[in-house]
Amino acid sequence: MEIGILGTGTVGRTIGTKLVQLGHEVMLGSRDPANPKAIAWASKLGSPHALYGTFKNAAEFGEIIFNCTLGSASLQVLQGVGTENLKDKILIDVSNPFNYSTDKIALMPCNTDSLGEQIQRAFPETHVVKTLNTMNINVMVEPDKVPGRTDVFVSGNNLKAKEAVTEILRDWFGWKSIIDLGDITTSRGVEMYMILWVCLRRVVDAERFNIKVMTS
Amino acid sequence: MEIGILGTGTVGRTIGTKLVQLGHEVMLGSRDPANPKAIAWASKLGSPHALYGTFKNAAEFGEIIFNCTLGSASLQVLQGVGTENLKDKILIDVSNPFNYSTDKIALMPCNTDSLGEQIQRAFPETHVVKTLNTMNINVMVEPDKVPGRTDVFVSGNNLKAKEAVTEILRDWFGWKSIIDLGDITTSRGVEMYMILWVCLRRVVDAERFNIKVMTS
After folding, report:
1. What ipTM, to 2 d.p.?
2. Helices marked H in B82-182
3. What pTM was computed for the model?
4. A43 touches chain B (CB under 8 A)
């Protein structure tokens, strides 16, 4: 499949590497069509399937698109990409709206809105599915690195899009426990959880962690 | 030990029952000194250790105080109790600042503040420890009802107070995994997690659940 990834940070590159290794054609997009991190990524992979270009190039290229930009930049990046390049496509939103301008990490938006909802409202003909924003980067595509079948969540309005993303999570990335939280408003839950995640990252004595919902 | 519990809802009564069963003297406090729920609770327990009175009575009575009031009412209740009845005591804050006035459950305060912090700021000579706000009520005092040694979190500025609360959680209630998140500002993490908890409660097919942090 042809997949566009917006963002050349560690999240975008890690997901991109996994997808190329699985045999997909991947284009990493950034502001700069010759972004040094994207060039180094493609060069290291040494595959004709590892491509790069602008955000717009990557969105045009992808049948499915991953939003791996900084949450604070996501809406602006997507507006630049244009509605026509996102229309009728699945947009997998992996970002968190961290606001680093306060003394403690906070979120913007938060509580009565979420970035997932903002993106869905801005692009009503795109199928936004929020997922994978709740764990360490390398756990996203290698969930077995944390033992115990931990959980990943999906939020979105379109059931078929969520089914497709669930298959990607399960069959491509290896997630065994995928919890459908409901419509895109449940993005608030997974985004707001990240403040607890930030607290946990400071005190958990392990390189990686993730939560598991235990039931009686 | 003499323990004051502010609030006669299911949280207050459940914790109160457990403490009486453990042999402690417990006073449930409410606005009404003859609150019907408190009277029924004491009558059902049929123990001389199960007492009730006003919020102020309960706070005066307790060496340790549990705040089990609605988050939206907590500060007002505590102001009514008075600084002198809370001074130098441990206040275990179990409440969540749910705001039901919006179409979806939201929090007030949130993100750049928390109820735990508001209470600590309002009562600087009280040792506020936030805990037990992140799980179903009956799991709070019977953690083994959810298998798998799930987690409870503690947040607070005073280390000795957190140690005392950790002992209560472990020795009285049976918690085996207690995670100290840090100072009272980490109340934001556990309070904001509750929006994910509300999402989970709708979709998890079980009477009770709780999260466990799995590490690699």
Report:
1. 0.97
2. 115-122, 137-141, 159-167
3. 0.98
4. no
